[in-house]
Write a structure and sequence with these properties.
133 residues, alpha/beta, 5-stranded mixed sheet, 5 strands, 17% strand, transport, Biopolymer transporter ExbD, transmembrane, ExbD, transmembrane helix
Length: 133
């Protein structure tokens, strides 16, 4: 009596789980790099302060370049229209924090003038960005 030969199943490599793992790792690295970089606006050289402390993330960032140019977030702003621009970005009735990121070489008068304009807005607090030495 002769037995029929067993059919050997073809070995296949299923790469779908490997692709899933590769995409999961890729997504992890993309998301982790987004949290490593902080979008603080324009690059400025912040002054150093021994007593600087970390604060909660500010809702608005006012950047003042070394030349004295103002940027609210990443958009250019003028000193005259600064209160109106800030009020347009702040939710009514909600307290807001504006962080002033002034370059170390910025003239002091420009920083004080910008801070004075912002202090006249009700419900808006001011913070000054520094870095530790």
């Amino acid at each position: 009596m002769q037995l029929p030969p067993e059919e050997e199943s073809r070995l296949t490599i299923n790469i779908v789980p490997m692709i899933d793992v590769v995409f999961a790792i890729l997504a992890f690295f993309i998301l982790s790099t987004l949290y490593l970089t902080r979008a603080e606006g324009l690059p400025v050289t912040l002054p150093t302060a021994e007593t600087s402390t970390a604060q909660d993330e500010a809702a608005l960032t006012l950047t003042i370049s070394a030349a004295g140019k103002l940027f609210l977030g990443d958009r250019p702003a003028s000193l005259e229209n600064l209160p109106a621009d800030v009020q347009a970005l702040v939710a009514p009735g909600q307290p807001a924090m504006v962080t002033v990121r002034a370059d170390a070489a910025t003239p002091h008068g420009v920083v004080v003038a910008a801070m004075d304009r912002i202090r006249n807005i009700d419900g808006v607090r001011l913070g000054i960005a520094t870095q530790q030495p």
